Amino acid sequence: MRIGLLADLHANREAVEACVEALQALACRRWVVLGDLVGYGADPGWVVDWVREQVAAGAIAVLGNHDQAVIAGDVLSMSPAIGAVTAWTRSVLDAGQLEFLRTLPLQVVDEDRLYVHANAWAPGEWAYVSNRLAAARSLLATPAWLTFCGHVHEPALYHLQAGAASHFVPTRGVAIPLSSQRHWLAIPGSCGQPRDGNPAAACAWFDTDSRQLGFLRVPYDHDLSAQKIRAAGLPPVFAQRLGEGR
Amino acid sequence: MPVKLQAGLRIGEFSLVELLHEGGMSRLWGVSHAQIDVPLLMKLPRIDYGETVSQVVSFEVERMLMPLLGGAHVPRFFASGEFEDQPWLVMQRLHGETLESLLGSTPLAPLRVARLGALAALALDDLHRQRVVHLDVKPGNLLLHVDPLNQQERIVLLDFGLSHHADLPDLLAEQFNVPMGTAAYIAPEQVLGVRNDPRSDLFALGVTLYQLATGKLPFGTPISNNGMKRRLYQEPAAPRSLNPQLPRWLQEIILRCLEVDPNLRHPTAAQLAFDLMHPEQVALTARADLRQGGRLMAFRRWLLTLGSRVEADEHKALPVSRAPLIMVAIDLKQSNPALDEALREMTRRVMQTATDARLACVTVLRVARIGIEPNLDAEGRSRHVKRLVALRHWARSLDLPERRITYHVLEGTEAADALIDYARSNAIDHLLMGARGVTGVRRMLGSVSSRVVAEANCTVTVVRAHAVAPAEPDADDSTPVP
C-alpha cells in the first residue's frame, strides 16, 4: 500500500489540492497528515475539513504547534504577526473544526512507523529536528523503524549510525529504497509554506510493500494563495514568502 | 546460528542449485526460479565469520543500489531479501571471465589493453550517467562478456558494495574512518574520503590498464592507510620504462588517468573511451615521454595534494554533461557555403557552452556496396587523406586547440548508418548536422538527417541555412481589395 504524506499544510488550500492530486496520480490510497494544518494561510476551514474527512475515512493526522496554539488561543507569547494569524484563525474556524483539532494526538504508531509533528523524544515540546544530533536524538527515542515528522519545513532524510545521524537532502524525485537494517527519519518538507528557496509544495509517499520512499515537489498557484492572505488582512509577509519559498 | 546452505534449499522463490564461489566476503550460488529462464546468481554475504561491519553495510548498499541500475553494463537485478538472518540478493548470471584472469599473461598487447580499457570506460560512462560512482574498479570487478546475440564484447561491472548514488543517502560516507576501496587501485581523493567524484573510477581504471600493460601495479599493494596516501605525492614509474613496447599514446592516456588532481584526468569516462578508441588522435603531452617518476614530479604531486585536501571537503559531484562529446557530420560532397557557415556557427556555440566539451569532425566516404576494400589501394588512400584535409580546413576557423578536436573519415554504403553507428559506439552526446535541400534523390530515398534524428541514441541538431524568403505571390484574384 502506498501512503501519501503531507506536513505543515498551513491553511494553504491550493498547495494541499496540488499535492493530493500529484500523490493520487502516484497511486497513494491512504493519507498521513503530520500536523500544522493551520497558521499562516487563509484557508484554515477548508484544510481542516479536508483532513477531518480523510481521518473519518481512515487517515492518520497528528497535532502541530500551530494547531495547538489555535486551540489554546494564547497569543500573548507569540510574535505579533503569528499572534495575529493565530487569533484570526481561531475566529474563522467553527466549533466543529476547533473540536476536530482538539482530538488530534501528538503522535501515532502504525506498524513499524511513527508519525509525529516535531520529534520523538518530547513531541509536545516542539523542539526541531534541524540537525544531525537532533535527528539522532529523535531516532534513539523510538523503537520505530521509520519516523515521519514535520515542523522543519525543509525536506530531509536521516539515518541512524554511530554518532550524529547521517543527513541527506533529496533533490530529485528518485524513489529511495529504505534498508530494513537501520532506522530512518524522514521529513517530507512543508506542503503549505516551503522555505528552501523552491516555492513548489513539498510532500512525500511511502510504499509499505516495496519500502520505498519518494519526495515530491509540486508546483501550485501560490499567487492565488498569497492573494487570499492579503485579502484576509493577514500579515503581508506570509503572502510574500510563498512566492519566494522562504 | 547461520543457515546451512545446500543444494535444493529454497530461499524466497529461488532454489539453490550449485555453489559457484566461496570467498572471504560472500558466497555465490547458482539458483533457479520457476518463472525466470535466464541463468541466475545468488549472492549471500558471510555473516558467520565475525567479519567487519563495513562488509555488512556494503551488502546493504548493494541491495539498495542494484534495483535502480539498468543497461547492458550491470547484471540485471531480480530480487533480494532475508532468509532467517541471512541476507541475499539475486541477479543475472553472465558468462565470461573477469580481467583478473588476464593478470597471469601480462603484459598484454597494447592494442588489447586499449580495447579492454575502452570497453571498461564505456561501461563506466553508462554507470556515471545513472548518477552512480562505482568506487571499486579493479580487474576482478570488470567482467568481459561476449553477447551471444551479436558476438560483441562488452564489460559488465560487478560489485556495487562501495558505490555512491548521487540521489540516495550514502550509507558508507563518514561511517568508517578507514578509506573504503581496494588499496592497490583506490583514487587519491577517495583515500581522503571523497565519495562522489566519477573521475575516481578513471583513476582506478588507469591503475588497471597500467597493470595489464606492464604486469606491475603503479603504487604496489599498500597495507596501511599511510601506504595508500603515498600515491598523493609519489609518482609511479613511467609504464614505458617497464614495457618499452608500449606506444607513447597509451602511456599518455594511462598517466593522465593516474593524475592526483582529478581535474587533470579525462573529464568523463566517455572521453577516456574516445581516446582509447582513437590512438592516432590522442594529443600527446610531456606525459608521453616521461622516463621515470622524477623528484620534481613527486614534489609537484605533493604540492597538489594540499589543494586536494581542501577540495575533499567541498567537492560536489561532477555532472557528466559538463564535458560532452560533440560530433559534427560534414557533407563534403555537396558543399553549400551558407549551410557550412550555419553549421560551423552552431558548432562554435555548442562548444562554447562547455569548456571540457570535445568535438569530433566526421565525414562519410561512400564505398561501393560490392567491391574489394577500395581503401587499400593508393587511390583509396588518397581519397581518405583528401577528406581529412578537407575536414581540417572546414574546422580551421573554429580555432579549437588540438586536445579538443579530432577528425574522422568513416566508410560506409549508407551515410546515415555510418553516422548512427559512430555516435553509438563512441558514446556521443550531441550530433550536429546540416539539412540538405530537397533534391530528387532525397525525395526518393528520404533524407540522411531524418533517419539520423529518428535512430541515433543521442541529441541531434539539424542545422539549416537562413533561407531567403521568395517574393510574396500575387494576391488571389478573388480576394476583395479594401
Characterization of the model:
The complex is a heterodimer of chains A (246) and B (482). With 246 residues, chain A is of the alpha/beta class. Chain A has one domain (2-244): 4-Layer Sandwich (Purple Acid Phosphatase, chain A, domain 2). Chain A is 34% helix and 20% strand. Chain A has 8 helices and 12 strands. Chain A has helices at residues 13-25, 44-56, 65-72, 80-92, 95-103, 132-140, 222-231, 236-244, and strands at residues 2-6, 30-33, 60-61, 107-110, 113-116, 146-149, 156-159, 166-168, 176-177, 184-187, 201-207, 212-218. In chain A, helix 3 crosses helix 4. In chain B, a hairpin with a 2-residue loop joins strand 3 (26-33) and strand 4 (36-45). Chain B has helices at 53-65, 110-129, 188-191, 199-214, 225-229, 239-242, 248-257, 269-277, 295-314, 337-353, 378-395, 415-425, 440-445, 448-455; strands spanning 10-11, 14-22, 26-33, 36-45, 77-83, 86-92, 97-98, 132-133, 142-146, 153-157, 164-165, 325-329, 358-366, 405-412, 430-434, 459-463. In chain B, 39% of the residues are buried. Chain B has 3 domains: 10-92, Phosphorylase Kinase, domain 1 (2-Layer Sandwich), CATH 3.30.200.20; 97-319, Transferase(Phosphotransferase) domain 1 (Transferase(Phosphotransferase), domain 1), CATH 1.10.510; 324-463, 3-Layer(aba) Sandwich (Rossmann fold). The radius of gyration of chain B is 26 Å and the shape is globular. Chain B is an alpha/beta fold. Chain A binds chain B through residues 157, 159, 161-162, 166, 168, 170-172, 174, 176-177, 179-182, and chain B through 56, 60, 63-64, 67-68, 82, 167-171, 173-175.
